[in-house]
Design a protein that fits this description.
Number of helices: 7
Shape: elongated
Order of helices and strands: EEHEHEHEEEEHHEEEEHEEEHE
CATH class of one domain: Alpha Beta
Radius of gyration: 33 Å
CATH architecture of one domain: 3-Layer(aba) Sandwich
Helix content: 10-25%
Largest sheet: 10 strands, mixed
Distance between the termini: 96 Å
Number of strands: 16
CATH topology of one domain: Rossmann fold
Length: 310
């Protein structure tokens, strides 16, 4: 793509390389986050099928690496960071399997092409897409996410896991959504130290009125997770990753306020006006007649006579 400079940046050689580098540059409005799914040096059939099913839910904003990669993200993060920069992905799932940690998934995200958060989940029970004999949702559907359980709000690790799952499955940001496009529901439940993930397809049934009757049909994949190791970013680094550019921050509008009911009020600043020179409606009865004399306001106050004389 190009030669690397002393400061670490890359100088493009061709127009195509220049466009690729411009896509990776920081933007005011970032692109949709892509995810990469990586197989470890040793994987089981459960982990392999789980990566494929998650890839099906995440498409087209995902990259699936089919070859095995001998690396351990908790011990050495350089390989994952290299793949992240190469494929321009800020989210990842790493699957592995061994005797100590069987059927293992590591879900994480990057910040500036360096690992920000990593959470290790063990698969205790798995039912894939092929285990449910029904129709599936269309590719690229934006899912609805539901989280149940007080642990997602109390436990610090599960609170960060909830934020990570939202970041992973939320999909692209869209201004409008039609009712027919809401096809997938991902339900996460935290109970008894375990996390249960269920996937449902939304069925719109006739109800006899304008609003359809909604039914949920499980379509897979289905997971029972157990929380294992975590690698969470410090509060300062996490706060830095959430910082937004000034261009996205809403500017405060002067002299505009709202009450508790949402009514907007505006304050207008005007110069002092001379009401004597105010232009009124032109009517015949207000026209001056011949011989009328207009009295100066100071003279009218001192004189007991009328303001206008004939």
């Amino acid at each position: 793509m190009g030669r690397r400079r002393e400061d670490g940046t890359c100088k493009p050689k061709t127009k195509r390389g220049k466009k690729c580098l411009e896509k990776r540059d920081p933007k005011v409005i970032e692109n949709t986050k892509n995810a990469m799914l990586i197989k470890g040096g040793n994987t089981s059939e459960t982990v392999t099928q789980a990566l494929r099913d998650i890839y099906s839910l995440k498409k087209p904003n995902a990259v699936l690496y089919k070859k095995k990669n001998i690396t351990r993200p908790f011990e050495d993060q350089t390989s994952v960071e290299f793949f992240s920069k190469r494929s321009d992905c800020s989210l990842f799932i790493f699957g592995s399997h061994n005797k100590k940690r069987p059927h293992n998934l590591i879900i994480g995200r990057m910040f500036d092409y360096h690992i920000l958060d990593m959470i290790e989940l063990g698969i205790e029970k798995f039912n894939g897409l092929r285990d449910f004999k029904n129709s599936k949702s269309a590719e690229g559907s934006k899912p609805m996410l539901i989280f149940a359980g007080d642990s997602f709000e109390i436990d610090s690790d599960l609170k960060r896991l909830k934020n990570l799952l939202i970041d992973f499955f939320r999909g692209p940001t869209v201004p409008n959504i039609r009712l027919g496009g809401l096809e997938i529901v991902l339900h996460f439940t935290a109970l008894g130290g375990k996390i249960f993930m269920r996937s449902y397809k939304v069925l719109l049934k006739k109800s006899g009125c304008r609003t359809p009757r909604i039914e949920l049909e499980e379509m897979g994949p289905s997971f029972n997770f157990v929380l294992r190791r975590t690698h969470l970013a410090s509060d300062d680094l996490y706060k830095k990753s959430l910082k937004q550019p000034k261009a996205l921050k809403a500017r405060k509008k002067k002299n505009i306020s709202q009450d508790v009911f949402g009514t907007t009020y505006g304050r207008i600043h005007m110069e002092k006006q001379d009401l004597g020179k105010l232009q009124t409606r032109k009517m015949k009865g207000l026209k001056k007649r011949k011989g009328e004399k207009e009295v100066v306001p100071d003279e009218a106050e001192n004189s007991p006579k009328k303001a206008k004389v004939h």
